[in-house]
């Protein structure tokens, strides 16, 4: 599918960039970073204006984040309300909400660009737990600006080798995201085992 999308980039340009960037922020497996790099490469060659490329990718990414957040806010509320009916579920939900309130801002910022595969899930979770929309938007806008500048800029700088650079960047982002998930799961496992031991003593 990626090859087919890439073949359409010179033909559909900015509309395709907007669609791919926005939908990737909703969790669809689309090569948004690669499309941005290609558009940066085309902009360097004079085929597209640099400012329209930046603005289109940035606006689409922020829009996709907003949709994901509000899907979490409205659909997730029904799930969290059901969980909160039981005392144990409410206590767990309260703890999760407190953790998100403390750490979500930096998490939102980093999952826009450094750990981008986790971004769509962060959008849903922050919306579902009622995290501040203003703080979500501020962190998301800052992170998406970094994401777009980084990838379009790489396309401009390495326009002759953009496909090779895109593959390296994509692999690195995936490995980082997988590492973060593994570390989190390991930390949760150690925490649960520690509680189990303290409960038996």
From TrEMBL:
Source organism superkingdom: Bacteria
GO cellular component, one term: plasma membrane
InterPro entries the record matches: DedA_domain (IPR051311), VTT_dom (IPR032816)
Membrane-spanning residues: 37-63, 172-190
Subcellular localization, as worded in the UniProt entry: Cell membrane
Record membrane topology: Multi-pass membrane protein
Protein name, UniProt field: Membrane protein DedA with SNARE-associated domain
Keyword Cytoplasm among UniProt keywords: no
Keywords: Cell membrane, Membrane, Transmembrane, Transmembrane helix
Limits of the VTT domain: 31-156
């Amino acid at each position: 599918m990626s090859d087919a999308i890439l073949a359409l980039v010179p033909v559909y340009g900015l509309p395709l960039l907007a669609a791919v960037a926005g939908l990737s922020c909703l969790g669809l497996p689309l090569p948004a970073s690669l499309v941005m790099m290609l558009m940066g490469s085309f902009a360097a060659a004079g085929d597209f204006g640099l400012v329209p490329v930046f603005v289109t990718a940035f606006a689409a990414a922020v829009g996709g984040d907003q949709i994901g957040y509000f899907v979490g806010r409205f659909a997730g509320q029904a799930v969290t309300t059901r969980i909160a009916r039981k005392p144990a579920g409410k206590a767990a939900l309260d703890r999760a909400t407190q953790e998100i309130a403390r750490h979500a801002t930096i998490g939102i910022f980093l999952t826009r660009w450094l750990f981008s595969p986790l971004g769509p899930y962060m959008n849903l979770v922050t919306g579902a737990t009622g995290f501040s929309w203003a703080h979500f938007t501020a962190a998301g806008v800052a992170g998406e600006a970094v994401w777009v500048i980084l990838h379009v800029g790489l396309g401009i700088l390495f326009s002759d080798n953009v496909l090779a650079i895109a593959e390296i960047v994509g692999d690195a982002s995936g490995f980082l995201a997988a590492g973060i998930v593994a570390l989190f799961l390991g930390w949760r496992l150690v925490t649960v085992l520690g509680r189990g031991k303290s409960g038996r003593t």
